[in-house]
Amino acid sequence: MRISPYLALVAAGALSIPLLTHDNYVIQLLNIAILNAIVVLGLNYTTGWTGQINFGQAAFYGLGAYSTALATKFGLPWIAASFSAILVVALASLVLGLPTLRLRTHYLAMTTIGFAEIVRLIIVHWEPVTGGTSGLRDIPGIDLLGWHPQGQIQHYYIMIAVLALAVVVAARIRHSTVGRAMIATKDSEIAAEQSGVDTLRMKLLAFMIGAIYAGIAGCLYASSIRFISPDSFSGTQAVFLMTMLIVGGMGSIPGCVAGALALTILPEALRFLGQWYLVLYGLGVIGIIALLPGGLASVISVRKLRWGHPQ
Questions:
Q1: Looking at the domain assignment, is residue 257 inside a domain?
Q2: Which of 164, 200, 222, 283 is deepest in the core (most CB within 10 A)?
Q3: Is the pTM of this model over 0.70?
């Protein structure tokens, strides 16, 4: 497979960041941005490719995190706990999506909002198990066959590897028959059905894959931060993830990553402005949406054209 100069430059830059800074706060911020990118990539399957509005991605993120945290605290090995958490998320998405995705229009959006609220209430009120509003502390860290990564830099490289794998899988699916069927479902569900596409199957598959992405990110979040609370997976976070997708560019894999990185890092970069940083941050987001209808992905496309790789 031929690797474009653009992709090679991005990969080299990502791998060299820890060599350029030894500030743990900066690396931790990048780790959170990478996790957000994985979650947004998952959201892109449902909203970007099949056209279904999904506000439950933060809830799946939380399910993955809490399932991993509880399983490891009860003594299950990290790898087994991660697989069990992903299974929980997959089953939850199947149970939620199977009846809801049969309906058209915005039923999925309303259902996922209700689902997210149910998950939040369970986390908050099941205090003996979840820790309630105080969260869970001292969560066992990542254990990869006896290797326990220490510090933000080692976790950074693990998360970069997972993000790279998530991008490769998304790209392979996008250019497969399944991916084209998903896009056809978004463009015109009726026309896709007339062409022989099982639109319910495509929407459910996209919903489940997207939830699994969020579950994987939740596993990494719980085991790297080692503290989780309901605030990290609230309805506000769900809207934030959707904003990342819109700003990055719906349907674009590089756009998902760019949107997540930009909206995670930008608020911290503007904090030196004091009380005005939120105003400028909001204006910046509005400006991107207004001036770049295709999101940051449209800028990325221009850069790739300059490298000689037309879309």
A1: no
A2: 222
A3: yes
Print pLDDT tens along the chain (311 aa): 455 666 777 778 888 888 887 788 899 999 999 999 999 999 999 999 999 999 999 999 999 999 999 999 998 999 999 999 999 999 999 999 998 888 766 788 889 999 999 999 999 999 999 999 999 999 999 988 888 898 889 999 999 999 999 999 999 999 999 999 999 999 888 899 888 899 999 999 999 999 999 999 999 999 999 999 999 898 889 999 999 999 999 999 999 999 999 999 988 888 777 777 778 878 888 888 888 878 888 876 655 544 444 44
* The total number of structural domains that make up the chain: 1
For 199, the domain range is: 23-234
Q: Does the residue 77 lie in any domain?
A: yes
Distances, alpha carbon 232 to alpha carbons 115, 123, 184, 228, in Å? 16, 12, 34, 7
Residue 283 in any domain: the answer is: no
How many angstroms from the chain centroid is the CA of residue 111?
19
Residue 263: inside a domain, yes or no? no
129: nearest Cα among 193, 220, 67: 67
Query: Which residue type occupies 184?
Result: A
Amino acid at 111: T
DSSP assignment of 114-174, as one string? HHHHHHHHHHHH-HHHH-GGG-B-S-----BTTB---HHHHHHHHHHHHHHHHHHHHHHHH
